[in-house]
């Protein structure tokens, strides 16, 4: 975007050169194009800015704000972190195992010792594929848990629909799965966006722990979203999936041991009625869905 990228001779001639990410440049320097040649302090070391990456430069990690060169002038250290990353552009025909061996040799020659984390090389395409598969696997696992919980809680009640055909059952569960998936996705992206925006507002940049905090924020949101999805599905018509209407209290509220007490709702299209007990205090007090035959249609006709 501005200036240049690191050059082959920079490890010796410009060991303190730094390239900024586009977002960091906009945040810290307000998009000032005269940033080249200015000095910033990174971890107690002065770095000279030589360039700014374009806005469309993307890698799996969105938290990288500053890029520097690997040189012998960099102070030596031992890596006790669980993960640290570097990026390299390969020549045509170079294989990942060979790149990994060369990277280990280059790092050791520069004085870097990776004692806690193994050195691995992966292509950007492979990292994206792993990330996508991990997210899809987590989503399928969450949906499977939600379906299992719903089946255990409602196997003898409103979620078990003995009068329904196989097609109606597939539509019922398909709607529930799609709704739950949309809520989980909204919870994930919402937590990620909120945590990253808060990090920028509080400290002026994206904290390296922002992604981990977003995951822990996502978990309670996902539980709340799945719980609401189950409750919402319970109060829908088993035939047309519309929300049931006209809730009516029946029985004697508070007297649930020997008497019926709960709420009864009806489908606005006349497909059936649902009874929800006030409390499942005995084996008789459970959700009951009753289909209505064609003789009831005249009561639900418009006009």
- Name the beta content range: 15-25%
Structural class, by secondary structure, is alpha+beta
Overall domain count: 3
Question: How far is it from the N-terminal to the C-terminal residue, by CA?
Answer: 66 Å
String of helices and strands: EHEHEEEEHEHHHEEEE
Write down the overall geometry. Answer: elongated
| Main sheet: strands, sense, barrel | 5 strands, mixed
Q: Kindly state the mean pLDDT as a whole number? A: 76
Helix content: 25-40%
Q: What Rg is obtained from the alpha carbons, in whole angstroms? A: 30 Å
Total count of strands? 11
Q: What is the tally of helical segments? A: 6
Which blocks of ≥5 consecutive residues have pLDDT under 50? none
Task: Please give a structural write-up.
It is a single chain. The chain is of the alpha+beta class. It folds into three domains: 2-113, no CATH class; 124-234, no CATH class; 245-300. It contains six helices and eleven strands. It has helices at 10-13, 22-29, 96-109, 124-154, 166-203, 210-234, and strands at residues 2-3, 17-20, 39-42, 45-52, 66-68, 77-78, 112-113, 245-251, 261-266, 272-277, 288-291. Strands 1, 2, 3, 4 and 5 form a five-stranded mixed β-sheet that branches. Helix 4 (124-154) packs across helix 5 and helix 5 (166-203) packs antiparallel against helix 6. The longest helix has 38 residues, at 166-203.
């Amino acid at each position: 975007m501005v200036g240049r990228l690191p050059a082959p001779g920079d490890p010796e001639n410009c060991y303190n050169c730094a390239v900024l990410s586009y977002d960091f440049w906009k945040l810290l320097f307000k998009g000032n194009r005269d940033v080249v040649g200015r000095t910033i302090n990174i971890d107690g070391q002065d770095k000279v800015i030589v360039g700014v990456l374009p806005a469309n430069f993307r890698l799996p990690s969105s938290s990288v704000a500053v890029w520097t060169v690997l040189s012998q002038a960099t102070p030596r250290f031992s890596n006790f972190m669980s993960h640290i990353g570097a990026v390299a552009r390969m020549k045509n025909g170079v294989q990942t195992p060979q790149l990994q061996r060369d990277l280990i040799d280059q790092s050791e020659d520069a004085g870097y010792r990776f004692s806690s984390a193994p050195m691995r090389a992966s292509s950007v395409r492979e990292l994206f594929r792993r990330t996508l598969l991990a997210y899809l696997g987590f989503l399928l696992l969450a949906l499977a848990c939600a379906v299992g919980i719903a089946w255990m809680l409602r196997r003898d009640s409103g979620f078990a629909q003995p009068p329904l055909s196989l097609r109606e059952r597939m539509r019922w569960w398909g709607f529930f799965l799609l709704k739950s998936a949309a809520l989980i996705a909204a919870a994930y992206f919402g937590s990620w966006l909120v945590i990253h925006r808060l990090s920028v507002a509080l400290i002026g940049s994206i904290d390296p722990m922002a992604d981990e905090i977003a995951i822990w924020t996502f978990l309670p949101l996902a539980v709340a979203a799945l719980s609401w999805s189950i409750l919402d599905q319970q109060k829908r018509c088993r035939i047309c999936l519309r929300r049931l209407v006209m809730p009516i209290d029946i029985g004697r509220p508070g007297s649930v041991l020997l008497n019926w007490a709960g709420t009864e709702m009806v489908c606005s299209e006349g497909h059936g009625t649902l009874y929800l007990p006030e409390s499942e205090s005995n084996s008789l007090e459970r959700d009951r869905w009753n289909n209505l035959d064609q003789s009831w249609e005249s009561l639900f006709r418009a006009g």
